[in-house]
Design brief:
Layout (H helix, E strand, L loop, with lengths): L6 H12 L4 H8 L3 H14 L16 H13 L5 H8 L5 H10 L3 E4 L1 E3 L4 H14 L10 E9 L7 E4 L10 E3 L7 E9 L8
Parallel strand pairs: 2-5
Antiparallel strand pairs: 1-4, 3-6
Helix pairs in contact: 1-2, 1-3, 2-3, 4-5, 5-6
Subcellular location: Nucleus
Protein name: Transposase Tc1-like domain-containing protein
Main location: nucleus
């Protein structure tokens, strides 16, 4: 079924209607919907014209400078909400427009990652340790892998952050892991090449 009729087809539809064809018959003849023929008839009777009305698109509610201000605010405050960004930058669009504009500029609203930040000393000592153990296969027979998990009574809520793709673990978009101040249960377990270990 064609999306729009040509002007010649619309003229043909009017001719058929003037020959007392029904809307259904004309629609079937031109392979269009009945409502399409109805609006052609209505336009002809009211305005004596066959041309379709050219709709004007809605212009952007924000200027380029307003878009830049919005993006700069989120760049400097990635953990703020779109509501806050709209208020602080006086963005003229609605909340939905604000969110859409941020998405168009490459920002995605994601759940923030939690991790402990390593200091330069931590990083250097880890590299040093890795270099020291690269000394033959016998080393691993004497290695025990262990890990621990702390279960806390505090409420760990998800916090959203605006960021671009592939930048999840950058410090600007990551929350530092901190102690809750409430009671917690620590669990520790180990495993080696010889034994699955235990869990305490």
């Amino acid at each position: 079924m064609p999306r729009h009729l040509s002007e010649a087809q619309r003229a043909r539809a009017i001719a058929k209607l003037e020959e007392n064809w029904s809307l259904t018959e004309v629609a079937a003849e031109l392979n269009v919907s009945k409502s399409c023929i109805f609006y052609i008839k209505k336009r002809w009777q009211g305005e004596q014209r066959l041309q379709r009305t050219i709709r004007q698109g809605i212009g952007k509610v924000s200027t380029e400078n307003e878009d830049i201000a919005l993006v700069e605010f989120i760049n400097h405050n990635p953990f703020e909400t779109a509501v806050k960004a709209r208020e602080e930058t006086l963005f003229p669009g609605s909340l939905r427009t604000t969110q859409r504009r941020l998405k168009q500029c490459g920002f995605k609203n994601c759940v923030a990652t939690h991790k402990m930040f390593l200091t330069e000393e931590h990083k250097q000592r880890r590299v040093q340790f890795a270099n020291e153990i690269l000394q033959g296969n016998e080393f691993w027979n004497n290695v025990m892998f262990s890990d621990e998990k702390t279960f806390q009574s505090s409420k760990n809520e998800r916090l959203h952050v605006y960021r671009s793709r592939n930048r999840r673990f950058e410090e600007n978009y990551t929350l530092s892991t901190t102690n809750s101040g409430r009671f917690s249960v620590n669990v520790w377990a180990w495993i080696s090449v010889h034994d699955p270990g235990v869990c305490w």
